[in-house]
Amino acid sequence: MMTYLDWFILIALAGGLVRGLMAGAIRQVASIFGLILAFILGVQLMRPIGAMTVDTIGLSESTAPIVGFVVVFGGVQLIVIALARMIEAAVESLNLSFANRAAGGALGAFKAALLLSVLFLVTTQAGLPDDKTQKASALYTPIAEVLPGTWDRVAPYLPAVQQASEAFGRSVRPQLQNGGESETSNDTSAEPETDTDAARETDPDSLSADL
């Protein structure tokens, strides 16, 4: 049975497919390169930009790298969109063939999957969606792994991508895989010790035994 999250993913992928069919492969290739560039710069600059956000608006140090990544990624995407529109204006007289449109549709769906993967990466840091919703969704995990999987395949061929992939793995990817499990386990393991200490403090027999 499909969940609301599955429907959201399907609608986003369909939207990317339709947009790609309308735009054609040329624009989609430029857009995907812009997405890759935005991710590389986002990973490389997320710590210094995140540190600036801590000083400017008082964010916690733990969330600063994620916010820095989002700021850089979004800024690069805005620049790429502006450049893409300039290119579109220059080549709008070109007639796109069916093959070009079909390739554009496939690339558009792939780009939508990449964007969803980035979105899930960011929202996971805030615990959204919860673990139950993730497991109930048939599409969440495959889509969430599109970006890491793509990076693992591309990284060996491009030094800049390799460096970004390593930084991504050290800083962000463990959060996507583990979520809040470590924090939950730490809290659970700490409870018995607290209860025992409290019992010893309030039990006269325990106090006399210690003395």
UniProtKB/TrEMBL annotation:
Tagged with keyword Ubl conjugation: no
GO CC term, one of those recorded: membrane
Transmembrane feature ranges: 33-54, 66-87, 107-128
Membrane topology per record: Multi-pass membrane protein
Organism: Longibacter salinarum
Name this polypeptide is given: Colicin V production CvpA
Region (Disordered): 169-211
Pfam families recorded: Colicin_V
